[in-house]
Amino acid sequence: MLAGYCVVTYIFGVGDRHHDNLMLKSDGKFIHIDFGFCFGCDPKPFPPPFKLSPYMVDAMGGMASEHYTKFKEYCCEAYNRIRTHVNTLLSLVALMLDSQLQSIVDGEKCIKKVQENCCVELGDEEAARLFMLLINKSASALFAQVTDRLHDWKQYWFH
Amino acid sequence: MTSTTVPMKLAFRTDSGDIYRLLFKYGDDVRQDMFFLHMLSYIDYQLRKENLDLRLTPYRVLAVSRKHGMVEWVTAAPISKIIQDHGNIRSFLALHNANPSGPLGLSPVVVDNFLRSCGTQLPPSVSPSFVCQSRWLTWNSGVVLRCGVVLM
Question: Is B52 on the interface with A (CB under 8 A)?
Fold first, then answer.
């Protein structure tokens, strides 16, 4: 869900996205919390490009619904608009390279990751097409569903 | 929500008589959260200037050391709990915003919030400090009090 967070978490390679880290307000606003894993770090193997679980697709009325189409349009628009600010974002990340944050182990790799995820060399239409592919990939990420289920069991047994 | 580090929930009364809630964390390094949320509020600020509102929620985080930090309290429920209690996301939203004539039986604003995903109508600030922002605090606590239910 939701367009804004899908795009932003994809660009910064935010990991560890499970159902305890995603929140929903009663007015429908969606929130991600806990950003302990960024720039492609993830405690679980084979993470999807971003979090789009079947529950979220279902809440939009399923993959065939007009809301899902609208969601994809928002995603592509947001992606292209954020791409225009990529240089500022990269400078901000570059400022943090010496900070010894837990996800910034190899500074160059972090910068490269953000650059890659923004696909700076692509035009708007190509980038939109690429993001559509990523949405489909995330929505059908079977492995992520398995790890989600495992995570739920773990929470159940240990808390 | 359970947490191994046992954060503390604090409530402060603001100048205007409202209540500002925050979570004080011990044992967690919130510096990275702080960095990411600055990025998020920067993106939100830029896109709003271009008239694209993605309804993001750049909540405030302030790290005071590598092991201590404060996080703004956001009134929301984790998806895992929603699924556990309501079965799916739509029935949770329908509980608060049912509208039989709207899309998916929900009020149109809520569906739009959900699709764009997330956020406040506040001017996001890149400043890590949330002291001296009493106008913002007033607005925020209003929302917290209106929402009422704390599901965390």
Answer: yes
Closest CA–CA distance from residue B92 to any residue of chain A (Å)? 8
- Cβ of A1 within 8 Å of Cβ of B103? The answer is no
Structure tokens at A158: 């240990």
Q: Testing the interface with A: which of B60, B107, B114 to mutate, by most A Cβ within 10 A?
A: B114
Q: Which positions in chain A touch B31 (Cβ < 8 Å)?
A: 99, 101
From CA B55, how far away is CA B149, in angstroms rounded?
A: 21
Cα distance between residue A146 and residue B46, in whole Å: 37
pTM of the predicted structure, to 2 decimals: 0.76
| Residue at token pair 């010496």 | A98
DSSP secondary structure letter of residue A106: S
C-alpha distance from residue B26 to each of A33, A34, A139 (Å): 17, 14, 36
Place of tokens 């964390």: B25
Dump pLDDT digits (tens) for A97-124.
Answer: 888 888 888 888 888 888 888 888 888 8
A53: closest chain B residue by CA: B79
Residue B3's pLDDT band (cuts 50, 70, 90): low
pLDDT digits (tens, 9 = 90+) for B7-32: 889 999 999 999 999 999 988 888 98
DSSP letters for chain B: ---TT--EEEEEE-TTS-EEEEEEEES---HHHHHHHHHHHHHHHHHHHTT---------EEESSSSEEEEE----EEHHHHHHHHSSHHHHHHHHHB-TTSGGGB-HHHHHHHHHT---SS-----S--TT-HHHHHHHHHHHHHH-----
In the sheet where A30-32 sits, what is the strand order? A30-32, A22-24, B77-78
Q: What percent of chain B has pLDDT over 90?
A: 20
ipTM over 0.85: no
What is residue A30's DSSP assignment?
Answer: E
Contact indicator for B43, B56 with CB cutoff of 8 Å: yes
